[in-house]
Recover the amino acids of this structure.
């Protein structure tokens, strides 16, 4: 079998096709050479190599101009989209990896309290600036939230952390005071200053013990060697407030959840319990996509709550 002759100038078919398309567009070897930053002879060799490999004549001379042959016109229809696509690849790739603020999505993990009390204003500010980006929220807390961060199932989380694992980054955004809440008319309601010993005889309603609040309350009572009793574990500040209103017990909550319409009496307990920060939780070393970076940028200095009981001051 006769072997097909193969002749590539510098062995680069893409360069040959780019030279061919440029000559076809400009109509002159000299102009194509200037545009490609090559000598005219180099462009001629590229065209010759392409003609040899395809066994066709692509151009014919018409005075100072070159004109495509029928075979040349057919090849141009096929080659031009390919060359344009390859030449635009770096720009398209850079845009793809950096993302766009005109579309895309940001996926946020958060607990119920964060979704109810913090995220509405943050998402509202973000949507005003980036209406084309879709926001998804995952209602998870504790270990489940950390697992989603580590698996990159979410871009980041917004919530509160006491103990930060070494592979997790936490940037506090806002701080809130701890508060003891009791129903109106409770026998402690008239006292402005309360101690742990005052609270201990009454049962506490707390979130499940796997969550930060339960661990924080337990730690403080143990440090002061004051025994306490948990009468009910239930998730969600709104649920806890309703059970306190109904007289099932007292609770230690974060002041972010308190509203004027609550039928509760609240006392600041920051002399015992640490102020609670809420912030951004990420996997260390992760490069966040553009929509996620845009979200974090847009929420700088957004006020969280109008509640008169607490300031919700920024930690930044």
């Amino acid at each position: 079998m006769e072997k097909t002759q193969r002749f590539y100038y510098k062995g680069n078919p893409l360069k040959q096709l780019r030279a061919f398309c440029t000559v076809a567009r400009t109509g002159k070897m000299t102009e194509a050479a200037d545009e490609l930053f090559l000598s005219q002879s180099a462009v001629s060799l590229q065209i010759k190599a392409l003609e040899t490999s395809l066994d066709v004549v692509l151009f014919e001379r018409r005075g100072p101009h070159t004109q495509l042959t029928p075979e040349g016109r057919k090849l141009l229809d096929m080659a031009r989209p390919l060359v344009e696509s390859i030449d635009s690849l770096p720009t398209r790739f850079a845009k793809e990896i950096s993302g766009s603020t005109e579309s895309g999505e940001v996926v946020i993990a958060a607990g119920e309290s964060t979704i109810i009390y913090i995220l509405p204003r943050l998402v509202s500010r973000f949507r005003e600036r980036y209406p084309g980006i879709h926001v998804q929220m995952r209602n998870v807390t504790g270990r489940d939230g950390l697992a989603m961060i580590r698996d990159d199932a979410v871009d980041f989380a917004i919530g509160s952390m006491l103990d930060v694992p070494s592979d997790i980054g936490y940037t506090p955004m806002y701080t809130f005071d701890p508060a003891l809440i009791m129903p109106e008319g409770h026998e402690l309601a008239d006292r402005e200053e309360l101690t742990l010993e005052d609270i201990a005889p009454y049962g506490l309603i707390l979130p499940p013990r796997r969550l930060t609040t339960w661990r924080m309350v337990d730690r403080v009572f143990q440090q002061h060697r004051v025994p306490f009793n948990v009468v009910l574990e239930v998730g969600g500040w709104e649920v806890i407030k309703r059970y306190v209103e109904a007289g099932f017990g007292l609770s230690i909550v974060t002041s972010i959840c308190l509203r004027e319409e609550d039928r509760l009496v609240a006392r600041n307990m920051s002399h015992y319990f640490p102020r609670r920060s809420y912030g951004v939780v990420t996997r260390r070393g992760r490069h966040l996509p553009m929509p996620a970076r845009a979200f974090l940028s847009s929420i700088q200095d957004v006020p969280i709550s109008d509640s008169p009981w607490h300031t919700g001051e920024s930690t930044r």
Notes: Confidence is low (pLDDT under 50) at residues 1-9, 306-316. The chain has three domains: 9-87, 99-175+276-298, 178-268.
